[in-house]
Known about the structure:
This protein is α+β, with helices and mostly antiparallel strands. It has twelve helices and nine strands. The protein is globular, with a radius of gyration of 28 Å. This is DUF8128 domain-containing protein. The chain crosses the membrane at residues 17-38. Keywords: Membrane, Transmembrane, Transmembrane helix.
Amino acid sequence: MEIISGILESILSVFKALWWIITPTFLVFVVWDLWLMYIKGAFIRGIKWKLLEVQVPKEVLRTPKAMEQIFAAVHSMLSSITKLRDKYWYGKVQLWTSFEIVGNAGGIRFYVRVPADFQRLIESAVYSQYPNAEITEAEDYVAMLPSIVPNQVYDVWGVDLFLAKDSGYPIRTYSYFEEKEEERRLDPIAALGEVMSTLKNDESAWIQVLIRPIDDSWKKKGEELINKLIGKKSIPKKTSWEKSSDSFWMFIKNLIFAPIQSPNWDAPEEQKPTPSNLSSLTSGQQDVIKAVDGKISKLGFEGAVRFVYIDRRDAFTRANIAAVMGFFKQFNTQNLNAFKPNGDTITSVNKGLFKKWKTADRKRKMFSAAMLRMIPRQVSVFNTEELATIYHYPASFVGAPQLRRIETKRGGPPPGLPTE
């Protein structure tokens, strides 16, 4: 006890002597964090959003490859926020978008929620791949529910999904479902369509793919992952600061030993990278490396997938929750990547004190996040191919009965019509 008492007295004496430095420094950091939260919140609240419903004709035979091209176009939303004034005065952040699949008793709908400034970008990207699509501005489906859920009438279950392993590993993508000739008619979205077609009365299921474009810096980690998989140890390059520091200490060393030996200005021999053992890898390991290399060869987005299920309390069932979660399992692989629930946002608390209160609090936060389409803190990196696998407009052979489509193609006017 005497030792602890002595330590506390020492800390207190130091604080008494330096309180006039410690307290203002602490307050500066607190005020700075509050300022950043305020300006970023003000910037986000000032964003004008548009919710677009996309319907494609029943006869369309496009594959998810078309949707991949749309996501590639959406990547042009990437902005470079380099000016200190924009970041620390105006609170600018990278804009994001939400690609959504919504199912209820009225049918299955596909939406895109996008900042108003990029509405034309989305429309042009969709029409370029689906010329006969119909894009309309829609009323937000969230507004049809009370502003606070759960309440006495409705209950909610939700979860944010991210990648279980390093983002360099891809999930199973649409190319897997098209590998064999006899399986070319498989569409990964079909399973979700069948589940959502069974929703009745006040049931609703929302899938929100929340993404923001990022630059190519994430690919460096993918390259490091490949080097690790092939057993190649790369030597990190020294920064200009590290080189200057080495030169300084070399000067000090030569200065100290100058009376007894001649100065040596030769730089120490650099380590050479270890050669890879690629030839000794199994075919399975080589497939993993090819998959990682394939992922980092495409444009990347940072984000997560949110799933929310809502129904009246007196009819709430977990059967449809399990069915939708099963939809995501088809993208999981043992040797690559898989979807994993975010333990901090899932609306089920099974351990610890105050479980009932914590569960209700998480449900309110989940509904609010879904309503505002806020990207969770824990995110993963998805490339365009992965996103197109999760979200794309179903092929004509997908027979979900509640799927909303355009019954007939829009035909253009016949050539040669008089203009006056």
